[in-house]
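Researcher: Here's the sequence for the chain we discussed earlier.
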Amino acid sequence: MSRDIQGFRQKFGVIGPSTNTIVQPDFEMMRPFGVTNHYRGIFTPDSDAVSNETFIAGAKLIGQNTLDAVRNVMTSSPDHLVMGMSAVTFFDGAKGADAFQRQVEETAGIGISIGSHACTAALNAYGGVKRLAILSPYWPAMNEAVAQYFGDMGFSVVRDHAMRARSWTGIAAITTAQCRDALRLLDGDDVDAIVQVGTNLSMVKLAAAAEMWLGKPVIAINTATYWHALRTRGIADKIGGLGRLLEEF
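Model: Thanks. This is the structure I predict for it:
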């Protein structure tokens, strides 16, 4: 098959909530020459009254709508899929993540990089990480699911912070200053690494900077997921300025 003129190294099909405005620019910021990203939205009604219960229900609705977006993006003939929504990849622990990945891959006929397993791969790439702190824009009930997943993968979640965004689009309005303050709350000598989940939270550049002043891995989920997609597909380019994961591994 002839190669795409611009995506001659790799074409990524990116799927994420239609309310998500951060994934697309984040992935473009990390995109090497010859790789292209083709974003398709998972239909997601916005809400201005998110709570513990409605967050879980809304995230599960996004999961149910995912396969329609998969079928949509497959019409562009991508080489690999990248999941731009993290919550659904943490439900039901490791087995839930595996089941979600398997369902998408069976529908698409190609592989997908998902946030939960990408974060695990990133933590293992750094090495020596066992104790985690988790930062999210979620509500506490969702953080519990994230902690269950990482526990299944052999990590211990020492503490977490849920920023309790009031709407799906409101996640993207959380400021760098708010995220910086949350990182300071989470850090401690009892934490080996900090992991930020929630793909509509803008953390790629802050996480890279925080690694320097905290002296430990700070993993933004968008960085981990896109890094995983690149490395899975044999794209080994080192990208400077966006954290050790893309610079070293």
